[in-house]
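2024-03-11 09:14:02 INFO receiving multi-entity request
2024-03-11 09:14:02 INFO entity count = two
2024-03-11 09:14:03 INFO echoing inputs for audit
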Amino acid sequence: MRNIWTIFKREFSYYFVSPVSYAVLFMFLIVLGLIFIYDLLGAANSGQAPVVEQWILGPFVTLALFLTAFITMRLVAEENRTGTMELMMTAPVREWELIVGKWVAALGFYLVIIGATLIYALIANAYTVPGIDLNTLFSAYLGLICLVGALLAIGVFTSTLFSNQIAAAFSQLAILLGLWLVGLPFQSQTGAVADIVRYLDISAHYYDNFAQGAIALTDVAYYVSLIVFFLFAASRVIESRRWR
Amino acid sequence: MIEVKGLTKRYGERTAIDNLTFHASKGEVVGFLGPNGAGKTTTMRILTGYMPASEGEGKVAGFDLMTQSFEVRKRVGYLPESVPLYPEMTVMQYLDFMSELRQIPSRQDRVDEVMEMVRIADRADSYIGNLSKGLRQRVGLAQALLHKPDVLIMDEPMDGLDPQQQLEVKRLIREIGKEHTVMLSTHILSHAEELADRVIIIKGGKIVAEDRPERLSAQRAGGGRVHLQVAGDGAGLVEHLGALPGLSQVRAVSDGTFEIDTLPGADVRGAIATSVVTGGWQLLELRRDAASLEQIFIELTGAAPASVSESAAADEPAETPAVEEGDEHA
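2024-03-11 09:21:47 INFO inference complete, emitting structure
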């Protein structure tokens, strides 16, 4: 556990000296800010209540699809490339501790971005009578954190496969898009197969339930299993040098 | 401290190291010598617990390499060949990070102590990315010493350093070698000769010789070589010296400079000097070839020793080119 904390501290602080992470932060805040202003003006004209879950968190999810890779691609691939992995693996650190520490750091950085979006919720709440639906807001944020956690776990996993960051980023995107679109052909079908495939859809759990204010155990379980699966796979990849 | 038996590592079809058996006792500096691609790095990676051997067994600091790798890693300090570090951290941050991973009590004191030891304290707040190769080497060494390891393993610690820095690192290694078991690899003979209590010469993954450096020199089959320089062009000197007993060949290298191959046995330098002077030549220089281990190395490994500037061994050992040039001058 102590090693996770040590790894976390190093990786998390790295995000605040890395230009890439500032670029990601900037992208999120500029795009979401513009959307928010546009929606707010529209709502003022039409007299509708602002829906933060749709205005902010919806676009956030779409952005996260493309921007989680920039945060995770470096994590292990860079250590593979520079050889620091060799030092890490000859120190008394377990593979899973290294992986979990790095994933928690990436999640920590995303929590900073997610936290920054709360400003929009506060503004929307202040300009609305009697205020926005906080239950739905909470549920949507919880879902967002679960979803982002899963996206980052996939990113950490693909980062272990390469010593090239770009390769790591693109393979993460490939897996993400696969999980994003897997349910599409089965949208209006019924039957066990369609149900299972639809369950695999990574965004449906968020859009259909969390964003609507419904927190269901199956949705939480889905994201948690994705996280555990990919972090486990990542540890095994690092460990695999011992089998070769 | 290090005890390995029948260590073998295969990468698919290729055997990188083949049935290595050796040991290193406490307080001993062992030099691991071999041409690039001989299996030095592979052996060291196995000893540090980075990867397992395909066959064989080994104990480092009293713990089994295969089953107690975690315990081994706690007690081994490792300086990998390329000295991998995090360029975005300062020296202080990095050493603090590594000592936290190694769970060292009163971290700050130990980091200060080690920085003092390798003389990097004045650069504590410099970013590692801005440091010269020599300074980075010292940071790598500091990292390897943080936890007072029982065994210190260094892969090509002198590679890429200028002579001044090499002196510094040698001084450090000698100091460290008094208390710790040190194993260092090099493809530069004079380093092994100077530093190691014992030398293990390895070729194509196999040990071809193992002994104290001076005993290896003594065991050598061939004779030595003497360099001679006289004033002027030294005309007629080759014929003059040819009459001396104990010499196998005299060659003129350039005007006034000669190389003399000697037969094994007595030191003939005195006889040569006398002969040159009584012959009427002015003797400017007479010295025995300093790299006496070099001949053994060439004889045993069939490869010319690499020059300092040559790039370091690849990650995975490649086949050693079998250049038979050992007796070229004989």
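2024-03-11 09:21:48 INFO post-check: Residues 2-242 of chain A form one domain.
2024-03-11 09:21:48 INFO post-check: Chain A has a mean pLDDT of 90.
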